[in-house]
Amino acid sequence: MSAHSEGVWQAGWRRFKADRVGLVSMVVVLAFLALIAAAALRLVAADWQTEVGVPNAPPGFLGPRAAQATGAVEQPKGPNVDLSDIDPLAPRYAEWAEAAKRYRSTETPRAETLPLGGDRLGRDVLSKAIKGTEISVFVGVLAALLATLIGTLLGALSGYFGGKIGDFLEWVYNVFTAIPDILLIFAFAAVFGRGIGTVVLILGLVGWTGLYRQVRAEFMKHRSREYVRAAEAIGAGHGVRMFRHILPNVSHVVLVRMSLLVVGFIKSEVILSYLGLGVPVDQVSWGTMLADAQSELILGYWWQLAAATAFMAVFVTAFSLMADAWRDALDPKLRGLE
Questions:
Q1: CATH code matching the domain that covers 26-40+121-335, chosen among 3.90.740.10, 3.90.1640.10, 1.10.3720.10, 2.40.70.10
Q2: In the beta sheet, which residues pair with residue 59?
Q3: CA distances (Å), 289 to each of 110, 275, 297, 304, in order?
């Protein structure tokens, strides 16, 4: 028999490795994080703003579009019709067309197709989706971590100590929940302006309330249990009892709530970027891609919408499944069944 008992996180990791769905989901999430790191280091998608293809270039598997009409006005038929009588500039059209050909010949040829298509300016949708993944996931995860930190800390203080500290934190909670989240987001956005850091701060300050209530209830339930009283008996301080003994036993609640916050904050970033209150205009995210795709979809150019939706769906699904697997691995009730 081992001289040391298995720790909470060691037991959780052992149980997590037995969950194949959770393990595969974690690999997918880590692959996205590696892609984000590569984009941040400009190893991939560094030229996402470059117009490398023709406007609305189709995906490579669809092939190039059929030649479209140039929009030139057909000359009127008839023996007595003089085109210069209709348009005084008509004699110059041929000259201007030849001059335009000379200028176009010096430009870099644009691709007729791109791997996942192009947008209305000819930018590569795949590069935009990779760069958008960096911005959207960064905003969603960092804002969720901020909200989780605030909600966990305040919930732990309120649930563990109670009394005047708990009453004050309950008053703060009631103030935030009395106003709809979307109105708080718009109010903070109007005050702080737009920007990636601003979006993270706004979502973090608005999204902690739900986690606070759950953590507070869990700490109120655990603070009087035997293992906490035993820690108190051997001289453990409040901080040790709160964050070394109680917090690991409620971490499954925190993880599940954080996964929901990541998903919700990515959606909030989409809404803010669509309304012009999100990421700056010189950046791209899944939200700005979906906003751009709205006008393209009417014309039948669906590939930017499909790329942004596919990237978002894969990441969100994998992250949610991974969080669920960690919740099951760390749940003390399930550990007790072993």
A1: 1.10.3720.10
A2: 114
A3: 21, 13, 12, 7
The conformation of residue 61, written as its DSSP 8-state character, comes to G
Q: What are the structural domain ranges in the chain?
A: 26-40+121-335
Residue-averaged pLDDT of the chain: 81
For 46, 186, 295, 309, the CA distances from 286, given in Å and listed in that order, are 17, 19, 15, 8
d(CA 283, CA 136): 11
Cα angle vertex 271, ends 303, 146, to 5°?
A: 115
The Cα–Cα gap between 136 and 143 comes to 10
SS3 assignment, position 77: coil
Segment 248-260, tens digit of pLDDT: 888 878 888 888 8
Q: What is the DSSP string of 138-150?
A: HHHHHHHHHHHHH
- pTM for the model stands at 0.74
Instruction: Tally Cβ neighbours within 10 Å of residue 80.
Output: 4
The pLDDT-based confidence of 3 (bands split at 50, 70, 90) is low
Write out the E strands in the chain: none
Kindly report, residue by residue over 15-67, the tens digit of the pLDDT.
888 889 989 999 999 999 999 999 989 898 888 888 888 888 889 888 776 54
| 6 contacts: CB under 8 Å, gap ≥ 6 | 14
